[in-house]
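Record type: monomer structure entry
Structure origin: computed from sequence
Chain ID: A
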Amino acid sequence: MYQALYRKWRPRDFEDVVGQEHITRTLQRQVAEGKLSHAYLFTGTRGTGKTTCAKILAKAVNCEHPVDGRPCNQCPSCLGIDNGSLLDVLEMDAASNNGVDYIRALREEAIYPPAHVKYRVYIVDEVHMLSVSAFNALLKILEEPPAHLIFILATTELHKVPATILSRCQRFAFKRILPRDIAQRLLYVAREEGIGLTPGGADLLARLSDGALRDALSLLDQCGAAGGTVDENRVLEVLGLAGNLQVSEMLEDILKRDQQAAILLLHQLYSGGKDIGALLGELSTLARDLLIRMTAPKGGDALLSGGYPAETLDRLAALAAPQRLIHITTLLQSTAAGLALSASRRTDAELCLLRLCDDSLSGDLTALAARVERLERGGVVQAAPAEKPSAPALPVREAPPPADDIPWDALLQEGPPAVEGETPPVQAAPVAPAPSAPAPAGEGDLWPRLLNSYKSRLPAMNRAFLDSAWGVMEGDLLTVICASDLTKNQLHNDKVQAVLQEVTSAAAGRPIAVTFSVGKLPSAAKSPAAQPEDKLDALIGLGSQFDNFKVK
């Protein structure tokens, strides 16, 4: 009968355990020097070797011919523990035997000395699953254990073990195995089993296992059963990770702010049976990989999930800034957390995608925070154009100016105001000033003339950021000068660049290239005629007058 690789290649000696040298060396020295504890507690994530080290320790303390604290794996005691025929070494699962009656029976049996070995060893796996009464029953025998008894407790959730149990055990923390150690072990096992595993495939399997060697061997077993060479493409195909390409397409649509494409792709995945929670989780994982890729380009490969090729990550990283990826990840995490109480998971996912594509749709202060950040950086902050009201607003009578500010010269030239019922006096036509010399024909003023054309073809979010930029023509190149890095990050994308290039080329009558830079805006961009007044700037300036005001 075929035996799974993780069972066939389970370590039988301390030297075979991978990635836990800080624990195996200590246990081996304790056995060699005879300084054994009556209770051990092994903690750590799944697949890191807790139960394996417990069985090796049970063999080492009962081995008839130990070698420097290591079991010989040839004597009847070692062989009996390996095949489970030795009743003095009992391995129990606390998840299915968590009642107080089972622990009481175990405690009554533990007082008798072993029949064939030196120590009676109880290995209790998933000990955190015991009930409160069972822990209380176990506590008494841990306080005053017989000399022939050793307890080895294993758990993946240390916080659920009572402090009274922890204080009576020697605790050993098993850490996640490094990907390079897992990859080396996989290559060794594949070579012994005749599986054509490439180094790239081993690295990918190691990252997918999340630090668990048992999971990595199971994945290798599954990929090797398909036959052929197990490389990166074969791993993605066999494990069903080819769907990650659609997830990367959706994130690309989000980064490009293409709401229609993102919603249509969500409908396609939902109709194909994709779970909404799993989709949001994969999007969050991909956004995290992009952050790692951008913040740690060298040495960060070991931190990646491993489900996406390097070229895909590099392509997506060029479309986003770290602050936006943090916003995307946060919103995805909060939406996924609320799906359990949602009345319509699909609707929540669609609303999440719309908010990710357009920051102005967020119900929080994201848009306002972006404007304040530009103001703090010294950029030009402008208000978005207000929508026209549905009904005409009533005229508001303005207060008269102070006497010192009345334009008397203008009033004298215009004459007295007209009285109702009287015919206004005929005034002479104003004399037009002499025309100035015409400006030389050039393209330096293309930006203010084409600004409305740019805005009519862009979303509202991009239109607002165009007010914080200015374009300068030099030959066949239009350089868009941005007031801050935030403005450049919002404008420097394929959609905005294509609109600017198309409109400018049509106006100039020749192909025009577009580039972006950050710098100080020209004086023409800051004139009152070029940009509307920003009420936020005025409000902040008014509030700054009270910075030194203190309430006594």
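Annotation 1: The domain at 5-174 is CATH 3.40.50.300 (Rossmann fold).
Annotation 2: DSSP finds 24 helices and eight strands in the chain.
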